[in-house]
C-alpha cells in the first residue's frame, strides 16, 4: 500500500508540474493583458500579481488602433482555403503512392517529403517573382497559392504511412461487394485514416497562423496582413513595445489553436506516430 501510494504521489506531482509549466504562458498573457504599464515595468513589483487596478487600455489599443479583427479573419480564411487545397491534393496523391508497388513508390514519397525541408528563406525570392507575374502581390491569394507548396509534401508523406497500414484486402473485399475502386477508397480507406487526415488539418492550419517570411514578403497593406505579421509590425514601434496589447493579441490568437490541439490530442498523436513508423 505504501508503495502504491508513493507511486501515486509521484505521478500526481509530475502531472501537476507539467500542467503548471504548460499553463504558465497563458497565465502570463492574461496577467500582462490587464496590467498597467507602471505596474508592468516596475521591477520592484511581483510580475505575477496585480499591484495596480487592472485596466482595459491594452485591449482598447489592440481593437481600436489596429485591424486585429481583420487580421484574424484573413488568417482564418487563408487557413481554411489552404486546408481544403491540401486535403484535395495530398489524400489522392498519398493513396496512389502508397499503393504503388516496387521501389518507385517509396522513392517518390521520400523525394516529395524532401521538398518540404527546403527552407523558405531560399524560396521566397523566386516565389515573389511568380506572385508578381500572376498579379497577386499584396493579396491574401498569394499565400493561398504558396502555402500548399509547403503543406502538401509533408501531408503526402504523413498520409502514405496511414494508407500503407491499411490492408489491401479490405479494399478488395469492398470491391467484391460491388464498390468501385474510388468507392472503396471513400468508404473504407478515408474513414480508417481519419486520424491522419485530422493531423494534416491541424498541421496545415497551425503553419498558416505561424508562418512569417512569406506573409511579410508578399503582403504590404495593413488591411491584408496576417495575424502573425500584423501584431509585431504594428505593436512594436521603434523601441516602444506595447507588451500588454502584444500579450492580448497572442492570447486571443493562440486560444483557438490550443483548444483544437487539446480536443483532438489523441488523434493528433496517433496521426504522427503511425505516419512516422509506417511511412
Level-1 CATH class name of the domain at 68-236 and 253-278: Mainly Alpha
Query: What is the third-level CATH name, the topology of the domain at 68-236 and 253-278?
Result: MetI-like fold
CATH superfamily of the domain at 68-236 and 253-278: MetI-like
Shape: flat
Rg, rounded, reads: 23 Å
Spatial gap, N to C terminus: 44 Å
State the total count of DSSP E strands.
2
H/E element sequence: HHHHHHHHHHHHHEEHH
Residue share in β-strands: under 5%
Q: Helix count?
A: 15
Give the name of the CATH architecture of the domain at 68-236 and 253-278.
Answer: Orthogonal Bundle
Strand order of the largest sheet: 1-2
Regions with pLDDT < 50 over 5+ consecutive residues?
Answer: 275-279
Largest sheet: 2 strands, antiparallel
Specify the structural class: mainly alpha
**Average pLDDT figure:** 83
Q: Oligomerization state of this entry?
A: single chain
Helix content: over 70%
Question: What can you see in these coordinates?
Answer:
- By secondary structure, the chain is mostly helical.
- The protein has a domain at 68-236 and 253-278: Orthogonal Bundle (MetI-like fold).
- Helices cover 78% and strands 1% of the residues.
- The protein has a two-stranded antiparallel sheet.
Write the topology of this structure.
Blueprint: H1 2-33, H2 37-41, H3 57-65, H4 68-99, H5 103-116, H6 120-134, H7 141-146, H8 148-165, H9 168-176, H10 181-192, H11 194-210, H12 213-218, H13 227-234, E1 236-237, E2 240-241, H14 243-263, H15 265-278
Antiparallel strand pairs: 1-2
Amino acid at each position: 500500500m505504501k508503495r502504491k501510494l508513493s507511486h501515486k504521489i509521484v505521478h500526481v506531482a509530475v502531472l501537476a508540474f507539467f500542467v503548471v509549466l504548460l499553463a504558465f504562458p497563458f497565465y502570463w498573457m492574461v496577467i500582462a493583458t490587464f496590467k498597467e504599464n507602471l505596474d508592468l515595468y516596475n521591477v520592484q513589483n511581483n510580475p505575477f500579481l496585480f499591484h495596480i487596478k487592472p485596466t482595459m487600455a491594452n485591449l482598447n489599443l489592440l481593437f481600436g488602433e489596429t485591424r486585429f479583427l481583420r487580421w484574424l479573419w484573413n488568417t482564418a480564411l487563408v487557413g481554411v482555403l489552404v486546408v481544403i487545397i491540401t486535403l484535395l491534393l495530398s489524400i489522392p496523391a498519398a493513396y496512389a503512392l502508397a499503393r504503388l508497388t516496387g521501389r518507385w513508390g517509396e522513392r517518390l514519397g521520400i523525394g516529395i517529403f524532401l521538398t518540404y525541408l527546403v527552407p523558405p528563406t531560399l524560396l521566397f525570392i523566386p516565389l515573389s517573382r511568380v506572385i508578381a507575374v500572376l498579379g497577386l502581390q499584396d493579396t491574401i491569394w498569394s499565400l493561398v497559392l504558396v502555402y500548399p507548396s509547403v503543406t502538401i509534401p509533408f501531408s503526402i508523406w504523413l498520409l502514405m504511412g496511414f494508407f500503407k497500414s491499411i490492408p489491401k484486402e479490405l479494399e478488395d473485399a469492398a470491391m467484391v461487394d460491388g464498390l468501385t475502386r474510388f468507392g472503396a477508397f471513400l468508404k473504407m480507406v478515408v474513414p480508417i485514416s481519419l486520424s491522419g487526415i485530422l493531423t494534416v488539418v491541424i498541421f496545415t492550419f497551425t503553419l498558416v497562423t505561424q508562418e512569417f517570411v512569406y506573409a511579410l514578403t508578399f503582403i504590404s497593406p495593413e488591411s491584408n496582413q496576417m495575424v502573425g505579421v500584423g501584431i509585431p509590425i504594428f505593436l512594436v514601434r521603434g523601441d516602444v513595445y506595447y507588451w500588454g496589447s502584444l500579450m492580448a493579441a497572442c492570447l486571443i490568437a493562440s486560444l483557438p489553436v490550443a483548444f483544437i490541439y487539446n480536443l483532438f490530442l489523441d488523434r493528433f498523436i496517433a496521426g504522427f506516430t503511425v505516419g512516422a513508423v509506417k511511412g
